Amino acid sequence: FFLLSSYFLKAQEFFWEDHLPYNNVIKLAQSSSKIYSATPYAVFIYDKKDKSVSKLSKAQGLSDVGISTIAFNANQLFIGYTNGNIDVLENNLVNNYPFIKEKVILASKAINNIIFNNDKAIIATGYGISVFDIAKKELKTSYYIGKNNTFLKVNDIVLLNNYIYTATD
Fold it and tell me: What single DSSP character describes residue 8?
């Protein structure tokens, strides 16, 4: 009986599901067809055409938790984390770029904002500014803008007339 009954039984298929608080939206970004809303734990995606909402969290493919900012450029959604990690969502695939997270420095690596200039992502961090080459998928350089090249937390950045303006504490 057990041998025959086990033949007809099917193993359960498991899917990870998260149960986290999502009531604290920290940043919005949008493309021509979607609106992205970030919380510290997930990104919600609202499709303007079919009016559907989907969620992207660690259980659905993000590499980390502790989202601190998002920014949209061309076909890519950049997701920055408090530990310096960066995910890029492109064509429904998430690619991870841990360059800043893996930097050996004694300062906060939090990604505070991301802006774009041509094929570069300019990143405001807890230690200064980093530049990510979008086409080559590599961290180009970092700038420590404190006195005598020391770490200085950059809360926000703006690009105007080829100058980068920063907001610090």
Answer: H
What is the three-class DSSP state of 5?
helix
Mean pLDDT of 49-75: 94
Contacts of residue 150, defined as CB under 8 A and 6 or more positions apart, other chains included, come to: 144
Strands (E), the chain: 27-30, 34-38, 42-47, 53-57, 67-73, 76-81, 86-90, 93-97, 111-117, 120-125, 129-133, 138-143, 154-160, 163-168
pTM for the model:
0.87
Distance CA 69, CA 135 (A): 21
Q: Is the pLDDT of residue 69 over 50?
A: yes
SS3 content of the chain, % helix, strand, coil (to 5): 10, 45, 45
Mode of pairing for the β-strands spanning 34-38 and 42-47 = antiparallel
Evaluated on CA atoms 15, 20, 48, 85, the torsion sign reads negative
Please answer whether residues 34 and 44 qualify as being in contact, where contact means their C-beta atoms are separated by less than 8 angstroms: no
- Which tens digits make up the pLDDT trace of 107-117? 999 999 999 99
What confidence tens digit (pLDDT) does each residue in 115-148 have?
999 999 999 999 999 999 999 999 999 999 999 9
